[in-house]
Structures are given as structure tokens and as C-alpha cells.
Amino acid sequence: MSSKVEALRTNERQCCQEFVLYGFVKRPKFNPALARGDSFEGSLYDTKPSAKVEAQTEVRVATSASVEPSHEVAPASAPIASAAPIEFTVTSFNELIGRTLDDGMRGSFRIAGEIANLTKRGHWYFSVKDAKSILSCVMWTSDVARVSFEPHEGDAVIVTGRISHYPAQGRTQLYATKLEPQGVGELELRFQQLVKELREKGYFLDARKKALPANPRRVAIVTSAKGAALHDVLKTAKERGASVEFLLVDVRVQGEGAAAEVARALRALDRRRIELGIDAVIVTRGGGSREDLWAFNERIVADAAFAMHLPLVAAIGHEVDTSVIELVADRRASTPTQAVMLLLPDSNAMGERCERLARDLRNAVRWSLQSRRDAVNRLAAHSALASPVLNIARARQRLTALGAQLRARALHSITDERRALDALASLLLRNSPSARAAAARAHLLTLAPRLHRATTQRLTREHTALSNLERRLRSAGPDETLQRGYAIVTTSTGALVRGVAAANNASRLEVQFADGRVRVQVDDSHQSTGNTHG
Fold it and tell me: Coil, strand, or helix at residue 516?
């Protein structure tokens, strides 16, 4: 076991040589005296703890081998005291500064910069900043009423006012009388552009975000070892009684090179996650201005967070602050305290849940035992177990009744079948060939007279109709016309002659009278009258 522990410590030292500082909060050993395992009566744990033992949280911080000792660096030049210094009280010296500024910097000034740390409480308290400096400002309510737009954090503005020193707080600030919009500030514009680019590439998709472990055993904290965020994390973890080890990676959280250190820490932790036994990572720092938090808005940090296999919780600044790493992380926390509450279970809540589950289990066992006891009592009181002779007599009586019922049902069924058979026999008799032939013969005898009458009537009607048609045909035919003295003239080929022209075209004609036919020859010289030759 000691060799495994030493190997793990060696891996930690090798891994954390990449960082400036590391440390860890050791997981407390299991104490059976504090276990809540005797919820049932008659528990196996009969021993009681003699005294209440509190888990102690041990914090160890070690300097990496790559860290060089710091040295005090003397200033390049130091003022040489040429006369005895003048003695002031704090108040008198602040008043001197104020008078000096009022006398030497009269008039108004126009200062361009970005709004930061804006607070609106009737009066407006804010700062204007650029890439290297920041200046405190205040605008009284009477001047606020003349501002024509609603300023926001990161807006680029031009502030007009006078510079003065506030002796009560020893603060030099600009007393603004006018505020003009200049557009979106440089840092805010860079932030918006990076957010848009990463969103299009899917860095913020919920589908890619990993679930947090239910009960992490070791958690890495990437933050400044001197910051208040680390204190909040350890304090909250101790209050929740979480049985977890913390691996601290000390990095710069603002200023030049901070983003590179944070990204390098995330990549190294993710690469050595199995060797170090890390279950999750917390990246955190306290609140500040947009410049103070800008290290967590760099693309290099976003890429390192996006590539991580470990679940990542980011708590940068306060509730109103939003950084790029928080959008990329698997979970965002508004404060370092909330980050611990999201990641670590509450031991008190888990204890209460265990007690609740134990109580439910105890009630379920009791109910199950009682139900089985009731079932046994019902079986014991059952008549089947009271008197076997009586049970046999009851069974015999029931068997006799069932036999009588079976015989009655059999006789009833036979009677029904016999009736059905008689009905079928009668139906078969009525439909036998001889009976059907006799019925057909009788029916034919009744149909024969009817057929004769119908045939006679039909012939009479048809004969009458035929006679009528014959009379009509005869009256419409040529015979009737010939009887009245008319004749039909045709050519030798049988073509009907309708005029003189048709008659001249033929040499011989046939003339049909009512009593016969005659042939005639046409004379061309007398076309108006024809000569008739017998």
C-alpha cells in the first residue's frame, strides 16, 4: 500500500512541475465511530463512540521544482533625502493634494474610455478605462438627469468633467458633468466576436457538455493560491463535510500570461487525469473588472476547456459577470461557493437521506413481516386445517352434488339433441326426391291450362296485329295505285323512269299496269309522246 501511495505522490509531483504551485486537501480517513449505520433496532454496531471526532482538513502547499526563489529587487533609483521631511496629518495631507489638483488642473477635461464597475444609486459611480489604466468617476444626480442614453458595462464613452481629490477617502476621481456615447468598447467588442465565433463552432452546445460526478473523490482547483476564491471553496467544502481531496493548481488569474497558465494547467490536468485520480476540475477566481477577468475570455483558455475529458465547473467573478470559459464549461457557477455546492454532495443532506431511506426500509420490513404473519394466521385458522374428516365429508357431498348436476345436464343435452334430430328427419322427408317430384307434377297440372289459355290469347293478338299490318302495307303499296289507273315505267334493266330525259336515254321501256306488263320502244323524234307497240 505504501508503494502505491508513494507512486501516486510521485505522479503528482511530476504533473505539477508544469505549474507554479500546487497543493491538495487530503481526504479524511474513514472513522467507523462517525458512521450512521445503526438505524435499525438491534444493529450489529453495538459499540458507541467514546467522544465526538471531528474531521480535520489538512492543506499542504508545495513549491514546484521549477519555481525559482523570489528576490526583492531594489528600485533603480531612490530619492536622496536632502532636507528634513514635513510632517502632516492624513487629513491635512489629503486636503493639500486636493488644493494642488484644484489649483493646477482647473477647467474641464474630456476623457475617452470604456465604462467599468458602473453602480447607479441616484448618483452614478463608475470608472473609465483603456488597455493600461483606469480612472474613478462620479456623476451627481443633477448631471445624470441630462444624460440622453442608458450606459452599460463596456460601453465606449467620452466623459467631460473636472478632476479633484476626495480627502475623506483619499481618492482622486473625475467629477463628470457630461456623458456621451462612443460605441461598443474594444474589450466588449472582442468578447462579442469571440462568443459569436465559438457559438458557431458548437463550443456552447448542451449536447456536448458532460454530467458532473455524483460523488467525486478528488477535485482539482485551478486558481490563485492567494485569492479569496480558494478560501471560499475550502470553507464551503468543510461546511458540507464532503469527503473529498482537493488538488490545488496555483496560476495567475489576471494580467499578462495568466491565460496561458490557465490553459496549460487545464491541458496538463486532463492529460494526467487517470494518474492523478481526478474526477472533476473547478476553475475559479473572485470578481473584478472586465480587464481583471479577461484571462478567462481568451481563445486559448476556451480551446483548452473545450478539449477536456474531465467535467469542468467554472466560477469566474460574480453573478453579473459572464466569461467565455463559463460558457464552454460543463456547468457555470455564479460564485466559488456555488461551484462547490454544485459539485460536492452535502454530507448532512446525505446523512438525512440515509436516515430517511433506513426509516423507509425499516417500515417496509415491518410491513412485510406483519403481512406474512397475518397470512400465516389466516392459514392456521382456515377450516381445511381445522378438521380433515369434516373436510372429506364436505368434499364427498360436493362430489355427489356435482355428479347429480352432471347427469341432469347430460339428460337435458340428449333430449335437445333428439329434438333436433327429429326436426332434421322431418325436413329430410319433405325434401325427398319422390315428394319433390309429386309436388312438381301437381304444379305442372295446374300450369298446363294456364299455358294453353295464354298461348291461345297470344296467337289471337298476334294474328290480329298481323292482319292490321297487312292492310296498312297493302294500302301503302303500288298495287292500290295501279288499280286507280296509274302505271310504273322502268328501263330494260329495271331502273325506274321518272321523266322524259330518262326515257330518251333508253331504247326500250317496260310499263307495268294493274293487270300486267307491256314493252314499248322509244321514238327519239317524238320525245314528248312515246309510240307504244304491243
Answer: strand
